[in-house]
Design a protein that fits this description.
This protein has helices at residues 3-12, 55-63, 102-112, 117-130, 146-158, 176-193, 204-210, 244-259, and strands at 14-26, 29-40, 44-48, 70-75, 87-90, 164-168, 196-200, 213-218, 223-229. The mean pLDDT is 91. The chain contains 8 helices and 9 strands. It folds into 2 domains: 37-86 and 164-264, P-loop containing nucleotide triphosphate hydrolases (Rossmann fold, 3-Layer(aba) Sandwich); 97-161, no CATH class. By secondary structure, it is α/β, with parallel strands linked by helices. The relative contact order is 0.17. The structure holds adenosine-5'-triphosphate (ATP). Adenosine-5'-triphosphate (ATP) is lined by residues 25, 31, 51-57. Keywords: ATP-binding, Nucleotide-binding, Transport. InterPro entries: AAA+_ATPase (IPR003593), ABC_transporter-like_ATP-bd (IPR003439), ABC_transporter-like_CS (IPR017871), ABC_transporter_ATP-bind (IPR050166), P-loop_NTPase (IPR027417). Residues 16-244 form the ABC transporter domain.
């Protein structure tokens, strides 16, 4: 098989595969039940559903931070626990180290990976430039706004050039304008870097704006209620939010969420 044929076969194969995944933290307390999905390379999947339905748990399973009670997951062709280096994780809290300036915060995973100082500084600076913070390299987290901290957190998650980016409600604590502009920025980064993403959100608008597909989960136990394709063309920009199709998707997802008892 030639290089192109191999790549085409790779592209068709799911990058993340979930088969009959269930999770219970205590016997009889099923949090997630029988979740199956295939995520091809390039997918940007939003997880949405009522509070406590298991969205973060599903993300942690994909990251290999916890193991399923039943079923199996395959990430990048292997077990999630073996996918270290292929994955970047962004949490709701930016989790920056207060005693390091933002260049060193972004360079931290590279330091842990053993990259020499010059290389990790160069990469950290390139990442910070990509998120529009090259003017702030020497600043400390306490000197940054919430939106800037989240930009640093995203730059840090992407510094190791992961194939997959997992985001657990990263913009939930931000005001709407900052959130909208970070959403646009995130899509721009995705265009540039081509990672596959899975993110948790409570915002229907954010899910529709970002995602290529939305998984609506029901609660107690968490099950897939709907998997909806969002066929809005990328790149999506601020103009997308005034598009009639975008608004039709907002209505569809809101209805789906209401039918499972989500009040977000
Ligand atoms: N480590 C754990 N041990 C025991 N129970 C847990 C653990 N982690 C999560 N749970 C329980 O699993 C359920 C799902 O939690 P999870 O955080 O995945 O939900 P979520 O959909 O992300 O919620 P939210 O939207 O409120 O953030 C909750 O009832 C939670 O209490």
């Amino acid at each position: 098989m030639g290089v192109n044929a191999t790549r085409a076969a790779d592209d068709r194969r799911a990058l993340i595969s979930l088969q009959g995944v269930s999770k219970e933290f205590a016997p009889g307390q099923v949090v997630l039940d029988d979740i199956s999905a295939e995520l091809p390379r390039g997918e940007f999947l939003a997880l949405i559903g009522p509070s406590g339905c298991g969205k973060s748990t599903l993300l942690k399973l994909i990251a290999g931070l916890i193991s399923p009670s039943a079923g199996s997951l395959c990430v990048g062709g292997g077990a999630p626990s073996a996918s270290e280096g292929k994955l970047g994780f962004v949490f709701q809290d930016a989790n920056l180290l207060p005693w390091l300036d933002i260049r060193d915060n972004v360079a931290l995973p590279l330091k842990l990976a053993g990259l020499p100082r010059a290389q990790r500084d160069e990469r950290a600076e390139a990442m910070l430039e990509m998120v529009g913070l090259s003017h702030a390299l020497g600043r400390y987290p306490r000197e940054l706004s919430g939106g800037m901290k989240m930009r640093v957190s995203i730059a840090r998650a992407l510094a190791t050039q992961p194939e997959i980016l997992l985001l657990d409600e990263p913009f939930g604590a931000l005001d709407e304008m900052t959130r909208d502009s970070l959403n646009e920025e995130l899509l721009r980064l995705r265009e540039l870097q081509g990672w596959t993403g899975v993110f948790v959100t409570h915002s229907v608008a954010e899910a529709v704006f970002l995602a290529s597909r939305i998984m609506v989960l029901s609660a107690n136990p968490g099950r897939i209620h709907a998997l909806l394709d969002i066929d809005l063309p990328y790149p999506r920009t601020a103009h997308t939010r005034t598009d009639g199709d975008y608004h039709a998707y907002l209505t569809e997802v809101t209805r789906s969420l209401h039918s499972v008892g989500g009040h977000d």
